Amino acid sequence: MRLKNLSEKDIKKLSDILAPKMTQRKFFKFLCPDSSEREEFINAYLRYNIPRWLQRGDFLLTDENFDVLLVVASPRRSSHKFSGKGAKRMKKFKSAPAIFYYRGNLAYLIHLIAPRNKRLKVMTVFAAKEHDEELFKLIDEAIALSYKYDFNLMYDTLSRRLIDRMKEKGFVVTYQKMFASTGYVQTLMMLNKQQ
Length: 195
Prior knowledge:
Blueprint: E1 2-3, H1 8-18, H2 26-31, H3 38-56, E2 59-62, E3 69-73, H4 87-91, H5 98-113, E4 120-126, H6 132-148, E5 152-157, H7 163-168, E6 171-178, E7 185-191
Parallel strand pairs: 4-5
Antiparallel strand pairs: 1-2, 2-3, 3-4, 5-7, 6-7
């Protein structure tokens, strides 16, 4: 189900449901190495970003229980500082600037490998393994949106968990390398629409 706008109450509910499920996700382990504050960090991250994604017109897809969130966003439209509502909550985390490092790295890689003649959006998945069935329904929805609105769809991850399933959906690996000085492998996959 595509979210077009959410009340503050629903944003809080979505964040409160997802945050505890995302604490072992490699993306958030990188952004917040301190496991004791990771859930609070994820909650702040989602409450800060969800309104901005919605305002920018990015695609946010979720299941009816808010167990999964799939964000399909432009990689080139991100700021390099926290500002506005929720910024104070993000600034309290020492590791929060890692968000801008990650986004900058992603934008640079996309500049190198993505086709120049078409719009591109990057899909980021926020889902625990036990919700894969709901997740892949949303991935089908994101693929349909990429055809309807004519943009290239790229999947970005620090985890290898979904790579084989994404290949089954028609995605091909376009980049795979150790991320920075971490033990995580960053993978970028592009939806192959030529099949």
